[in-house]
Automatic annotation (TrEMBL):
Gene: tent5aa
Native source species: Austrofundulus limnaeus
The protein's name: polynucleotide adenylyltransferase
Gene Ontology molecular function terms on file: poly(A) RNA polymerase activity; RNA binding
InterPro entries in alphabetical order: TET5 (IPR012937)
Keyword match Calcium: no
GO biological process: mRNA stabilization
Keywords associated with the record: Transferase
Length: 401
């Protein structure tokens, strides 16, 4: 792992040099086209119908309304794991959420409110014709189709996020950014693909794309060096810069990379990085109930269809927190480790995941749960965290040999 000291740009559209950008190949353009033209269902809650939409259509609808409301959109980009998938199909990461960034001028609260209203209004366009749209309010649409909304507005960061729900974990995340100091956590998730030339091609061209006839599409690594970041993606290397800027969720992403087979290039720098991330996690989520909500949300959103990997993930997280946490009192540290252990046992029980016995770690305490002889009807009662004994300081989990 290489930790570099290069500063990051505060603007969504940074002044880039030739090393941070690259032209996509034809194969990469094809993968991008399949994502933007593929149909993604947005599932409604209750009796609301599923909205079938192509990403390029929602981008066009939102951008058009923003321009009509005099909100200038500088460009639109594909970000996150979907962008990494376009650049390297066999990275091992796959992609869940579809992250779309609208780099726009958002100078005040009015612009943020306008953007929110625009997205909710655009959802009406995708409702079936049989629905009486005039009776549906923006609040109703929000409750039916929006999984989460986030707004950050301070001196260095001005952005908002609206996430549209998908039951299979492939949410469509619309991010509206005026400025954002930290746009990535690790080099392998630092890629942004500029979509404007391809969106214009969809609008203007009467002929389909071909290897000899397609728009020039640029990819950028906000990590700072495109070819280096792409090499990290190819070889599954964990690398970052300015790790002290990574927020608390970076610890969860780091452990997810470890479980997916990514490895830091430097053992010594890894130790320093882990300490940074553990400290920041406990700064951002100081209360045990906040930690539980964050962990349960991460497991729910990032392991759809991969339930058998949750146990390995929690075991990895337990090891990192146990080894690298230096900012907590002893009882607070044990409390968090107990929470992670409890979630690991719950995962085994809920999904009947029985790992290889040689690699199992047992989390033991006296009888808060019941299991039959063949382990098939194992269940967990609602109990306190696994580490409940306050009188002893010895370790209460042991490897099965």
């Amino acid at each position: 792992m290489s930790v570099q000291d290069r500063g990051s740009s505060p603007s969504c559209v940074a002044h880039t040099d030739s090393t941070s950008v690259s032209v996509l190949s034809w194969e990469q353009v094809q993968r991008l086209d399949s994502i933007l033209t593929g149909t993604i269902p947005i599932h409604g809650r209750g009796n609301f119908p599923t909205l079938e939409m192509q990403p390029r259509h929602i981008v066009k609808a939102v951008r058009t309304r923003m321009e009509e409301n005099l909100i200038h959109v500088r460009d639109v980009r594909l970000n996150g794991s979907a962008a990494s998938h376009v650049l390297h199909e066999d990275s091992g990461l796959g992609y869940k959420d579809l992250d779309l960034i609208f780099c726009a001028d958002l100078k005040g609260q009015n612009e943020f409110q306008t953007v929110k209203n625009i997205v909710l209004d655009c959802l009406l366009d995708f409702l079936p014709d049989c629905v009486k749209k005039e009776k549906i309010t923006p609040l109703t649409l929000k409750e039916a189709y929006v999984q989460k909304m986030v707004k950050v507005c301070n001196d260095s960061d001005r952005w908002s996020l609206i996430s549209l729900s998908n039951n299979r974990g492939k949410n469509v995340e619309l991010k509206f950014v005026d400025s954002l100091r930290r746009q990535f956590e690790f080099s392998v998730d630092s890629f942004q693909i500029k979509l404007d030339s391809l969106l214009l091609f969809y609008e203007c061209s009467e002929n389909p794309m071909a290897e000899t006839f397609h728009p020039t599409i640029m990819g950028e690594s906000v990590f700072g060096h495109f070819s280096q970041a792409l090499d990290h993606l190819h070889h599954k290397i964990i690398c970052t810069r300015n790790p002290e800027e990574i927020r608390g969720g970076g610890l969860l992403k780091y452990c997810h990379l470890l479980v997916r087979g990514f490895r830091p290039a430097s053992e010594s720098e890894m130790k320093s990085l882990q300490r940074y991330m553990c400290s920041r996690f406990f700064i951002d989520f100081p209360d045990i109930s906040e930690q539980q909500r964050k962990l349960e949300s991460y497991l729910q959103n990032h392991f759809v269809g991969l339930e058998d990997r949750k146990y390995d993930y929690l075991l990895t997280l337990h090891g990192v927190v146990n080894e690298s946490t230096v900012c907590l009192m002893g009882h607070e540290r044990r409390q968090t480790l107990g929470l992670i252990a409890m979630l690991a046992v719950r995962v085994l029980a809920e999904h009947n995941v029985i790992p290889n016995v040689a690699k199992v770690t047992c989390y033991y305490q006296p009888a808060p749960y019941v299991a039959d002889g063949n382990f098939s009807n194992y269940y967990i009662a609602q109990v306190q965290p696994v580490f409940t004994c306050q009188q002893h300081t010895y370790c209460t989990w042991l490897p099965c040999n």
